[in-house]
Amino acid sequence: MNLPNALTVLRLALIPVFAGLYLHDCQIAALAVYVAAAFTDALDGYLARRMNQITAFGKLCDPLADKLMQLTMLFCLAGSRLVPWWLLAALLVREGYQVAGAVYLLRRRKVVVSAKLPGKIATCLLIGGILCVYPWHRLPWLVDAGRALLMGGLAFAMISSVCYTVSAVRQVHGQETNR
Length: 179
Known about the structure:
By secondary structure, the chain is mostly helical. The protein is built from six helices and no strands.
């Protein structure tokens, strides 16, 4: 266990804390937890690269923790009717595909596909969109901008799935030709 991985574990632990606060109408405290989790997401990746502590655990669990927090947030926002349920459903299907593929590749092929630029852009757009639609203000134009960011985030998430799939196929094919 290194510091970047400990931050990933912390982010996983913050998910039920966020959900509990949000569901008990403590939106500002829940938002603070979400922002802290988003900060640890950026920090753990930076530290892993800077300290040369990139691990298979981090490559697999860091994006998982990020996506679980995003999906939990979107579930809460959909329940509050601030984002459409279909957006959450589309991201759930995408994430299910990604996780199933990652688990298969790791267990069966010993391949870990690292994050690609479209996935990082999707994450940034989704975080920005979430912060804009989150009920901490009363500005309709900011909510509209947030919904547009969420749509862009969904588009980049789908593009990133194609990129991950292509990368995985290339890595698996490379393994088979090297045998």
